[in-house]
């Protein structure tokens, strides 16, 4: 049996979470068009005959922002790199930025990462990819290069075969039917947070956190109550919307996602609370799953 941990690393918004979801065949990491959607490590588990792959989706490594929250997110990346058997570096087709180079330098010298070039479906002509591929092949650190479209699930099968062939032998680490190490409660919070990114402006989702206050399995449904934390009263007003319209829309969309995931009818109650400086509160961040 070949078993191992595989880190997915890359700068923000290159499609790591979409790639994880497609590889394991289930939505585990939330996605949006905005960067930094993922805040903590999420493990996705793919078990096939003779192979178990444990994919670790990491937050996008970033150098732009400071603060305790973002330091925790970057540490999540570096911690993952020290505990895996393989590293998959994900980049965007036709783009190689200083941030990509910085991430490559973060990968320990003893590891030869595999390069996944994502979003090739957005390239109008395959001929445009030739010089880009040649430039990447000149970087001798990469063990292999796979152009893919995670969104369209294009060219993922050869990637999976390659990864499985290069894992060490060992016993199963998880039951064959397990798809993640995270709890249902964790995923509920993530589905709510995903709707904040999808339905709010460019800044507010980054100033918002989700805390699950109650998760109870009742006879006919699952009752969930959650608090949305914001920094100031102005953000609270925006999040609630006129006569509660925006909060209701967020709750409805999140509930539908949660019901699909849990395969159960769900009651979802949302409240908004002002907690200034929550992103610098180490105790609270640990409750939200961040390590320091």
UniProtKB/TrEMBL annotation:
One of its GO terms (biological process) is ribosomal small subunit assembly. Residues 118-121 are annotated as: G4. Keywords: Cell membrane, Cytoplasm, GTP-binding, Membrane, Nucleotide-binding, Ribosome biogenesis, RNA-binding, rRNA-binding. One of its GO terms (cellular component) is plasma membrane. It is a peripheral membrane protein. Pfam families: KH_2 (PF07650), MMR_HSR1 (PF01926). SUPFAM superfamilies: P-loop containing nucleoside triphosphate hydrolases (SSF52540), Prokaryotic type KH domain (KH-domain type II) (SSF54814). Residues 36-40 are annotated as: G2. GO terms for molecular function: GTP binding; GTPase activity; ribosomal small subunit binding; small ribosomal subunit rRNA binding. InterPro entries: G_ERA_dom, GTP-bd, GTPase_Era-like, KH_dom-like_a/b, KH_dom_type_2, KH_sf_prok-type, P-loop_NTPase, Small_GTP-bd. Residues 148-150 are annotated as: G5. Residues 57-60 are annotated as: G3. GTP binds at residues 10-17, 57-61, 118-121. This is GTPase Era. It comes from Ferrovum myxofaciens.
């Amino acid at each position: 049996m070949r078993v191992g941990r595989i880190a997915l690393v890359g700068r923000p918004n290159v499609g790591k979470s979409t790639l994880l979801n497609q590889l394991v065949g289930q939505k585990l990491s939330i996605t949006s068009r905005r960067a930094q959607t993922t805040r903590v490590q999420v493990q996705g588990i793919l078990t096939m005959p003779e192979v178990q792959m444990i994919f670790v989706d990491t937050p996008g490594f970033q150098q732009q922002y400071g603060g305790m929250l973002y330091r925790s997110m970057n540490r999540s990346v570096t911690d993952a790199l020290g505990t895996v058997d393989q590293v998959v570096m994900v980049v965007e087709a036709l783009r190689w930025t200083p941030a990509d180079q910085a991430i490559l330098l973060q990968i320990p010298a003893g590891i030869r990462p595999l390069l996944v070039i994502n979003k090739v479906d957005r390239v109008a002509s395959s001929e445009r990819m030739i010089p880009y591929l040649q430039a990447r092949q000149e970087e001798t650190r990469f063990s292999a290069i796979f152009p893919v479209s995670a969104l369209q699930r294009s060219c993922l099968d050869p990637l999976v075969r390659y990864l499985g062939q290069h894992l060490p032998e060992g016993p199963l680490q998880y039951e064959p039917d397990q798809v993640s190490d995270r709890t249902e409660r964790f995923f509920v919070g993530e589905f709510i947070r995903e709707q904040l990114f999808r339905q709010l402006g460019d800044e507010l989702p980054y100033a918002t956190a989700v805390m699950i206050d109650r998760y109870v399995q009742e006879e006919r449904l699952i009752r969930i109550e959650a608090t949305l934390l914001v920094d100031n009263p102005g953000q609270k007003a925006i999040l609630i919307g006129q006569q509660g319209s925006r909060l209701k829309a967020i709750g409805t969309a999140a509930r539908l996602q949660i019901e699909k995931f849990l395969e159960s009818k769900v009651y979802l109650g949302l409240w908004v609370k002002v907690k200034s400086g929550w992103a610098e509160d180490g105790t609270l961040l640990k409750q939200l799953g961040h390590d320091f």
